[in-house]
Specification:
Elements: H1 5-20, E1 25-28, E2 43-46, E3 49-55, H2 69-86, E4 94-101, H3 107-117, E5 124-129, E6 139-145
Parallel strand pairs: 4-5
Antiparallel strand pairs: 1-2, 2-3, 3-6, 4-6
């Protein structure tokens, strides 16, 4: 069985994470963003780099508004903003963004919200269509900040 692109990308990211920490690995958690829904941290700081786990549009009370991709995107990016700030960074420090969506036809609608968070010097990014996301979400975003 051939490994998929996402499998290879995950392994590469994991290796980067393991070898870039230099012994200083810190779990980042804030109650201003939703708690993880699985066995993972909101973010990990390794050295000067902050790795924020994929976020869906959960609110801190566990509810989610899936009425539009714009509402989901805005909630996801607000969650990321709060986690990044809890890690001692801000959105201007974000250098890499990964967006996963269940409908690539929503690309322009996602971009309309996205550009309000990253209006100047936007980070590198990829947008990938996936079959499904946790809790019926239509968008999930993870970031890396330096």
């Amino acid at each position: 069985m051939k490994p998929t692109f996402l499998t290879i990308a995950f392994v590469v990211c994991l290796l980067i994470l393991l070898f870039s920490c230099g012994g200083s690995r810190q779990i980042i958690f804030t109650d201003k963003a939703p708690a993880p829904i699985g066995p993972y941290s909101q973010a990990i700081r390794c050295g000067k780099t902050l790795y924020v786990s994929g976020q869906i549009a959960l609110r801190t009370d566990g509810s989610m508004d899936t009425s539009s991709v714009e509402n989901e995107c805005r909630q996801v990016l607000n969650n990321i903003k709060k986690i990044v700030e809890a890690g001692g960074k801000n959105l201007n420090d974000v250098c890499k963004v990964s967006i996963f969506t269940t409908d690539l036809k929503q690309f322009s609608r996602i971009n309309e919200v996205y550009k309000t968070f990253f209006s100047t010097s936007p980070p590198a990014r990829e947008t990938i269509e996936v079959k499904a996301l946790p809790k019926g979400a239509h968008i999930e975003i993870s970031v890396i900040a330096q």
